[in-house]
Inverse folding.
């Protein structure tokens, strides 16, 4: 089983010809509401890319939503993908998380998040889900929920002998010693530079990965968008070029990569095979609009 601990958002997506300047009003294009949130996206990607029908109840989430219409819709979407929702808590009188997303004609995006119920995911919710986490092989986390909760969950998962995957996004500093508890750290270039304490401008990706390994994480996988993936693994350094595709919308591409990678590991693939599955899935996803609407099923990759 894969347990994902993290955020659930409703994405409010607006197409724009280009990103607006400060104080500028632009006429946009199509508007859609699409289920998202880094945690939920990664859970959906794990389920769809596991090769099981509707996830076969082998992916579960620990998260919070509000008692509003968005919360009900978001939960229903996850259940529709076969994700176990027994530890998704509905909080009364609280708004569900939302992300306001602008997508330009080149497929690039700009995102602003209002955490809502995600900001109230607490260590107590993690403790309540300990029985679920005990059933997991892999536990996946991000940084769209409170840092204290993320750290508590990492420590619990590690104490239970689980493989811990951390996507340190949005970029933030981590408490000392946390990286030593992470089996696979999967940042993008900006997040890697922030964690390493250097400027992302002109940073050497191999040096970034090495610096993060020195901080404690044995395996560092840096996603580079159209430039592919650099993996500094326990057994050595490797570069995996990206598949060439025409990007329509890059929203959730990183989440799709993580889901494909984790699903591959859970199915018995070695690290290189799992990375390649994640890359193939991410490349497929950027050719489609939206977050969860762009995440492929395993059979669509072949």
């Amino acid at each position: 089983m894969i347990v994902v601990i993290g955020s659930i958002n409703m994405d409010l997506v607006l197409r724009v010809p280009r990103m607006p300047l400060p104080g500028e009003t632009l006429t946009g294009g199509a508007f859609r509401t699409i289920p998202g949130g880094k945690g939920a996206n990664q859970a959906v990607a794990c389920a769809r890319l596991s090769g099981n029908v509707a996830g076969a109840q082998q992916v579960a989430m620990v998260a919070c939503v509000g008692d509003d219409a968005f919360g009900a819709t978001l939960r229903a979407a996850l259940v529709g993908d076969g994700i176990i929702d027994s530890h998704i808590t509905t909080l009364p009188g609280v708004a569900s998380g939302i992300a306001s997303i602008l997508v330009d004609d080149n497929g690039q995006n700009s995102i602003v998040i209002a955490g809502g119920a995600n900001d109230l995911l607490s260590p107590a919710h993690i403790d309540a889900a300990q029985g679920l986490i005990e059933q997991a092989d892999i536990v996946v986390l991000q940084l769209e929920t409170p840092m204290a909760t993320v750290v508590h969950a990492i420590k619990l998962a590690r104490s239970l002998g689980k493989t811990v995957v951390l996507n340190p996004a949005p970029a933030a500093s981590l408490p000392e010693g946390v990286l030593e508890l992470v089996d696979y750290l999967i940042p993008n270039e900006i997040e890697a530079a922030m964690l390493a304490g250097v400027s992302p401008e002109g940073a050497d990706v191999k040096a970034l990965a090495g610096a993060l390994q020195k901080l404690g994480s044995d395996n560092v996988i840096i996603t580079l968008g159209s430039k592919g993936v650099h993996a500094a693994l326990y057994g050595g350094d490797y570069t995996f070029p990206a598949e060439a595709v025409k990007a329509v919308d890059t929203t959730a591409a990183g989440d799709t990569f993580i889901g494909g990678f984790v699903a591959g590991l859970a199915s018995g693939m070695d690290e290189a095979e799992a990375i390649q599955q994640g890359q193939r899935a991410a490349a497929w996803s950027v050719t489609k609009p939206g977050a969860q609407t762009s995440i492929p099923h395993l059979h669509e990759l072949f």
User: Anything to note?
Assistant: The longest helix spans residues 271-285. The first strand starts at residue 2 and ends at 5.
